[in-house]
């Protein structure tokens, strides 16, 4: 009881105390060194160690002795380089990984953007595009299913010997790295468009996110809790209370429709509110489709096409290769 009381008093004192402000002096700030540094984030700190990343990555980058690392927290770190060319080479060859899980790396900036260390650029491969849809606009649209399209590698004037199209996308790590998408075809029916991710080793086999293994998936834990509650709860009468607000997603996942403004999102949430689960999910999909179409329309004029078909090309890891690699030790890019 005495310990609990002491902790409560300490917490109250901390809340009442004014925040500390350091003097506006160069002695309290690191500016020059930071100009030649990278900030990083572990996507799966349960399977990665900051200290081991700091020890291993200079060797993988071939800059041992020309860079030093700093552990900032359980999942954040910094590398300070001696040479600009070394830093730029590391950035160019992203994404990197350690122990088969992806690392996020960005150049230090005094004013980081909102998505700093929350996204990365990935080259993806798009497979099974039907011949009737083999256009730059289709490639852009399909790549947009994964992330914001930065570039599409395609030259319509030369022979194309690969069975896939490559695209560089800006990927939000809060979203799933989807493996496929159904596409309607004019003859009727659908085809399955496949997505592969270059230099990405592992992801959750349930929700397809890059931040955890399946055994620790928050989505599975949430479903398990919901199932247990359903088994122990009395049957709801038709017209009774609806299920919880879908914006309250699994712990660690973003809310629905984060792209919308506060007012638009409020309207969208009212629209998808429905007692029937099937209708509610259909409305959610309609809102998502409307958002994607709006984003595609606004960014289509910015589409970039490169004729360097193998630009920035990296390896696509299969599950079999991953199991074999786990016996060989940590993996880099």
UniProtKB/TrEMBL annotation:
Q: What range(s) does the Zinc knuckle CX2CX4HX4C domain occupy?
A: 171-218
Give the highest taxon in the source lineage. Eukaryota
Report domain DUF4283 positions.
32-111
Q: What is this protein called?
A: DUF4283 domain-containing protein
């Amino acid at each position: 009881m005495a310990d609990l009381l002491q902790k409560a008093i300490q917490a109250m004192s901390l809340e009442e105390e004014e925040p500390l402000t350091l003097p506006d002096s160069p002695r309290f700030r690191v500016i020059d060194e930071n100009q030649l540094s990278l900030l990083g984030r572990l996507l799966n700190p349960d399977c990665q160690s900051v200290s081991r990343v700091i020890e291993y990555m200079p060797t993988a980058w071939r800059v041992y002795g020309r860079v030093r690392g700093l552990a900032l927290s359980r999942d954040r770190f910094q590398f300070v380089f001696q040479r600009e060319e070394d830093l730029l080479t590391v950035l160019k060859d992203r994404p990197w990984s350690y122990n088969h899980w992806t690392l996020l790396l960005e150049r230090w900036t005094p004013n980081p953007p909102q998505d700093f260390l929350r996204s990365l650029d990935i080259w993806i491969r798009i497979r099974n595009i039907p011949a009737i849809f083999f256009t730059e606009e289709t490639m852009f649209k399909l790549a947009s299913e994964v992330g914001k399209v930065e570039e599409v590698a395609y030259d319509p004037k030369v022979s194309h010997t690969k069975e896939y199209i490559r695209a560089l996308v800006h990927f939000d790590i809060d979203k799933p790295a989807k493996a496929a998408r159904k596409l309607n075809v004019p003859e009727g029916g659908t085809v399955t468009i496949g997505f592969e991710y270059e230099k990405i080793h592992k992801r959750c086999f349930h929700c397809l996110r890059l931040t955890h293994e399946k055994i620790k998936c928050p989505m599975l834990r949430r479903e398990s809790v919901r199932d247990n509650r359903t088994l122990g709860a009395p049957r709801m009468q038709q017209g009774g209370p609806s299920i919880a607000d879908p914006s309250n997603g699994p712990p660690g996942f973003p809310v629905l429709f984060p792209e919308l403004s506060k007012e638009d999102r409020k309207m969208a949430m009212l629209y998808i509110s429905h007692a029937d689960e099937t209708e509610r999910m259909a409305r959610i999909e309609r809102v998502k489709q409307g958002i994607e179409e709006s984003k595609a329309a606004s960014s289509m004029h910015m589409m970039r096409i490169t004729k360097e078909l193998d630009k920035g090309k990296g390896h696509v890891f299969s599950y079999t290769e991953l199991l074999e690699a786990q016996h060989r030790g940590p993996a880099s890019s």
